[in-house]
Amino acid sequence: MPSASRYALAAGLACATLSWASPADEARPVFTPAEIRKILSHGPWPAKAQPDPTNRVSGKRAAIDFGEHLFFDPRLSGSGQIACARCHVPEHNWTDQLRRGSGMAEVDRNTPTLMNLRAQRWFGWDGGADSLWSQNLRPILDRRELAATPRHVAELVRNDPQLSCWYRSSFGAAPSPTDDDAVLVDVGKALAAFVETLTSGYTPFDRFRDALARGEALPPGTYSEPAQRGLKIFIGKGGCESCHSGPNFTGGGFFGTGLSKATPRGRPDPGRHAVIQNMLESRYNLLGAYNDDKTGAAAEHTRRAALEKTAPGEFKVPTLRNLVLTGPYGRDGSADTLADVVRHYSGIDPVRLHARDGRPAQPLNLTQREQTDLVVFLESLSTFANGWRPDAHGRCQLQGGSRKAEGGSKGLPRAARINFRLSPFDLWVYSRGCGGCFSLPLTLRSSR
Ligand code: HEC
Ligand code: HEC
User: Fold this and answer.
1) For 138, left (φ over 0), alpha (ψ -120 to 50), or beta?
2) 42 CB-near residues (< 8 Å, 6+ apart)
3) Residues 388-435: tens digit of each pLDDT
4) Per-residue pLDDT averaged across 295-303, rounded?
5) Of the residues 8, 158, 251, 385, which has the fewest C-beta atoms closer than 10 A?
6) How many A from CA of 92 to the centre of ligand 1?
7) Measured distance CA(47)–CA(211) in Å, rounded
8) Could you tell which of 79, 122, 135 is best to mutate to test the pocket of ligand 1, judged by most ligand atoms within 8 Å of the CB?
């Protein structure tokens, strides 16, 4: 076919598609300069991050390896059966697809992903920990999770030749023979060094955002029109980005949205309101002896927490990255799909929630079409490219004080050897961007 008529045919097809699919309200949105500034504020991705000054092994290779071993090691638990990876499963984007996590017993809340925690200020849905390493101690000691004691963890690290070798290569000295708490805290710090490295990948939204930043037009079909319309709602009348702000789609604040309604043991979950005092009294907080930042600067937010104004039922604003892999949603896991979450927001006034000014609320009342667009946009914040690979650093051998790794992946706990595979069906669903019509999450399979 001569090229001119081929173009004519292509143009004809395009017009036919457009006239079929684009009544005025469905057209590709045009973004104003103010909207473009908002869109640019959600990147670039991945965001730059510095080592955590409160953790002296943050960013250290040996500690990252040690932390990864600990993460998959069930011997850390009191019963010897439950590892962190029981609930934070790598194939499920470091969560478990359950409404509520379950270790020795079921816990009250949904297991959050461990991606993109680096540079957050508060940890847990309630922000009950002021550092990533002190957060890691909560599940170790919680009777429903790993149900261990400082003594149990310290003895394990002291007596296991591999773990004590990893400890020495990370911290430069043998684990203290008498101070259980110091060894426990260092285990939390090695786990934090590992967890910090988990970052979600570059998404269709990021590609769109970066093209806008460069002032380039994307080839048609690269970022779907429903996704762009959903984005416009997200930064506009939806008021979403007043809480879900910045490259990680969370400003780190605490709010009540009414999304989660579960009442564990018959009482409403009080959230942030109930944990501040405990956090301030904890010997593991940043005001205590285990903070490695001796300047005190990194403890500023802990000092200010006593003045925080909170109301019962407020929770940390979660990241919105990689949501297609982390359902069910909400602090209590009661929303099965993103469509359920968006339906909830459509019935409330997210803008007033954020403003907290007591002015009358006006429910968003999104149309069915707008709700679908918002879901498609939320899906476009996900990617299946998982940067994490099971480590291959093998066994630890100390030689003249420095570590030598040997033996490929042989020394790894079995749970860590995973190949990511996605079925053609999953890819098809995702590439269609058919928001709201499928019950996600999709299935990632491991080779176990
Ligand atoms: C029984 C399931 C379960 C196990 C086992 C478990 N976690 Fe969690 N994890 C959760 C739940 C549920 C939360 C939310 C806690 C809350 O808000 O009260 C959470 C929260 C977290 C957070 C905070 C995430 C955020 O967004 O602030 C980190 C970090 C974390 N866990 C790390 C770990 C580590 C490290 C281990 C192993 C020592 C571990 N978890 C074991 C279920 C689990
Ligand atoms: C006032 C602050 C605020 C506003 C505005 C807001 N959110 Fe949220 N969002 C939260 C909080 C807090 C949670 C956790 C709520 C819970 O489980 O109780 C949350 C949870 C979510 C979740 C579930 C994530 C997960 O991993 O479980 C999604 C999806 C979401 N919001 C999307 C949106 C969208 C879309 C909008 C705009 C229509 C929006 N949010 C507006 C604060 C806010």
Assistant:
1) alpha
2) 205, 209, 241, 245, 246, 247, 249
3) 777 656 788 776 555 555 443 333 333 333 334 444 444 444 444 433
4) 96
5) 385
6) 14
7) 17
8) 135
